[in-house]
Amino acid sequence: MASSIKYFWPSIESVGLMTKVLIVEDDVGYAWMMIKKLGSFFEVESVATLKEAVEVFGKRAFGAVLMDIGLPDTKIDNTVALMKGCYPECAIVVLSGHEDPERIKRCIRDSASSYLIKGRDDKDGQQLATAINSAISNNAVYQKVERVRKEIENGSEI
Length: 158
What we know:
Helices cover about 40% and strands about 15% of the residues. By secondary structure, the protein is of the alpha/beta class. A 5-stranded parallel sheet has the order 2-1-3-4-5, with helices on both faces. It is globular and about 50 Å long.
């Protein structure tokens, strides 16, 4: 049974001002490695299952989720949709060992902001931080466009 890492790794110079990132990863060793790589850029917390992620989101807000799609409590092809369905405003960055183009397309279609490959795109903390920040920015633009689109559909003035 996978256990969660309940550990915060905030940067000393900006405690309380950092973007919060939730890592959803059932491999505790890998999650710890991601915490160490991202800890100087974000306030990071990690859980091992989608259920735990939903529980944590009920208590705290996060700017982004860095998640594996092969979690013990989801089917690999619906993990992103389930997470986005619960928290549509949050940027989701998939970090997975699956390189199948169809699976990547499905995750992006299900509103993942980015898809990174384990072992290739996760070697450098700065590269990961840049990908997460880009996902947060892109997601914010998408959310704004969606709000404007809905206002137009409802006949509201912009």
